[in-house]
Amino acid sequence: MKKILSLITAGLIISLSANAQIKLPRLIRDSMILQRDCNIRLWGWASKGESIKIRFNGKTYHTKTGDDGAWMVRISPLSAGGPYTMEITGSNKIVLHDILIGDLWVCSGQSNMVHQLQLHSILYRDEIATANYPAIRQFWIPTTSDIQSPRTDLPPSYWKPATSGSVQDFSAVAYFFAKDLFEKMHIPIGLINASVGGTPIEAWISEDGFKAFPAILKTIEKNKDTAYTNSFARKSPGTGTTTPRDKGLTGPLPWYDTAYIPKGWKQIGIPGYWEDQGIKDLNGTVWYRRTIDVPPSMINHPAKVFLGRIVDADILYIK
Q1: Which pLDDT does position 140 carry in this prediction?
Q2: CA-to-CA distance for 47 and 98, rounded, in angstroms?
Q3: Which CATH number covers residue 83?
């Protein structure tokens, strides 16, 4: 995790019409948490040359958009506290509510940082049900990619509080980290979760960061050619789709049907990895089938099945 000292802007290049209204980045919205004790940078877009006025905590700030329609203003340092309301006025007016000032942290990494509390709904059942930390908030950045160039904004997302209605979507690591800080410091804690499972370190480095690696720069340049990247789209014969269809769902009988008789299926020991049991280098779907005897004492009673974690996704059919 890395602490972020202020909300910053980079590469704000956007084309706007002459009468464009004020537009804010996804990160700057209701219920956001801003960093205490330092200058806070706010930014957005509007018409070229438009005057922007921001009223916040009894002070008024003025700025003007540049030729690219982008604007930025610095807010004076504030101590931890809130909630505050912010008014941003130009050709239109935007009012942001429930803003807190505290410590803001960027939580970034792979699957260990992505891993959400809802994936441990049994182990942390009581934690999820009783969570009541409205001053701990997470902004979850949805996974997206663009190999052409950096984007000026994020996909749709929101600041959500660590309360029983939404804490299940929090990164488990980030939540317990924030909870520990909050109980010690008693100030708002903001979490910006920018994690993507399974990503290599190269995916987190800017193009400028590869100046000493010409081979990687060559690959980046090739990836900017849409004709080149589109050539990798795999299509199933006769379907016109880019996603191969699962044989277990497309035959005369789906493989989960009790009338289907598996032929040529191999036995496998579970728990265990299929790569250790004869299936090497497979990136796809594997079907398991097992017959379970249910004792008479369990008939007509509610029950739950726990299969543990599967790497990407799993579907269970009970027949």
Answers
A1: 95
A2: 27
A3: 2.60.40.10
Return the beta strands (E) in 187-264 as ranges: 189-195
* Phi, psi for 295 (deg, rounded to 5): -65, 150
**pLDDT at residue 292, rounded to an integer:** 87
Q: Average per-residue pLDDT in the chain? A: 88
What's 240's DSSP letter? -
Nearest to 188 by CA among 166, 159, 154: 159
> DSSP character for 218?
H
- Is 239 contained in some domain? no
Contact 138, 170 (CB under 8 A): yes
Indicate the number of domains in the chain: 3
Q: Could you write out the DSSP letters of every residue in 97-120? A: EEEEEEEEEEEEESHHHH-BGGGG
The low-confidence residues of the chain, meaning pLDDT below 70, are 1-19, 233-244, 309-312
Token couple for 193: 């979760």
Asked whether residue 272 is domain-assigned, the answer is yes
Contact 148/222 with Cβ under 8 angstroms?
no
Each residue's pLDDT tens digit, 199-229: 889 888 989 999 999 999 999 999 888 888 8
For the question of whether the overall pTM of this predicted structure is more than 0.70, the answer is yes
291 and 174 both lie in a single domain:
no
Contact 73, 54 (CB under 8 A): yes
The per-residue pLDDT for 6 is: 43
Which candidate, 65, 72, 78, places its Cα nearest to that of 37?
78
Instruction: Compute and round to an integer the Cα radius of gyration of the chain.
Output: 25
Name the residue range of residue 223's domain: 201-230
